[in-house]
Specification:
Layout (H helix, E strand, L loop, with lengths): L3 H8 L32 H14 L1 H28 L1 H27 L4 H11 L4 H15 L1 H6 L1
Helix pairs in contact: 3-4
Length: about 160
């Protein structure tokens, strides 16, 4: 698989990831019970949303943000290329682990859809998955109708 140094090189190239704190005895994520339910949360999600909205309002700040992100991406790509040139085997194993990770995520999402209890939730997910343009939506629905509904009529 990965050698320890190569793995840390890949992990340290982008932004750092956060970990959920797990209880070592039970293996369940820890939850702080002292915080009341009615308290409004001002977490990273809210702060990030407000920051993005603030940047979008000011074109100068937006350009500065884009320049910083372009520089960060350029440095990341440079580091990746250096690691890849040194070790092709590491790249191959990283791609394999990424492929497996993505496949596990897709399988998990499929299970979630299969386990839905409410038809409303299924319809909401399907509507979000449909294209935004009405012509394309209609075309997709027609194809699905001809694929699933019309064969049943023939059998009856």
């Amino acid at each position: 698989m990965f050698t320890r140094t190569i793995q840390t090189q890949f992990n340290n190239m982008g932004r750092s990831t956060t970990r959920r704190t797990m209880d070592k005895v039970t293996g369940i994520p820890r939850v702080n019970k002292d915080i009341p339910e009615t308290r409004t949360s001002k977490g990273t999600k809210d702060n990030s949303r407000r920051y993005r909205e603030k940047i979008k309002k000011d074109p100068i700040k937006l350009e500065e943000y884009r320049a910083r992100e372009a520089e960060r991406s350029r440095i990341y790509r440079k580091k990746v290329n250096e690691v890849v040139k040194k070790n092709q085997k590491a790249l191959k194993s990283k791609r394999e682990t990424d492929r497996l990770r993505q496949q596990r995520y897709r399988d998990k999402k499929k299970e979630e859809i299969a386990n839905q209890k409410s038809m409303e939730e299924i319809f909401k997910k399907l509507e979000r998955a449909l294209p935004k343009k009405m012509d394309q939506k209609i075309e997709v629905i027609k194809v699905l109708y001809s694929k699933y509904v019309e064969p049943e009529k023939v059998l009856c």
